[in-house]
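Usage

Read records sequentially. Each one opens with the input sequence:
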Amino acid sequence: MANGALIEPVRAAVRCTTVWVLVLSLGVHWAVLRTVAWTGMLLTYSRDGSWKEAVAKTFDGKHPCALCKVIDKGRAQDQKQKQPQTKPGSKLDPGLVWQATSFHFDGARSLSPPLDSTAPARTDEPPKPRPRGGLDGTHALI
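and closes with the structure output:
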């Protein structure tokens, strides 16, 4: 068996596991189960009456099926687990630790050198055509 043939099933298993972890962590499984429950309810209620009555019974919330009850119970447990389990007053809150710093701009400004107005200005023009070294690979950059 070639090495590549062994790697492909492992990659597929990793991808499948990643998708399932994302689905479960985002709660998408509840939406899928709810869709299955609604479909079953529509089919069941449409046998006894019209399609309009079946839709009304399915989505009014007064006629839940067994799967809907299980879904509601499971979602309630998920919400309960997501809430933090800390007691009031036991939460560590360090607060804002900051102290204002004052700046004084009264002193002499010796950080930047003074402009030298006697320095000669550059008057020569850049060479034409401009050098193109390094971009096309013909000249090395130093």
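Summary fields computed downstream for this record:
- The radius of gyration is 36 Å.
- Residues 27-83 form one domain.
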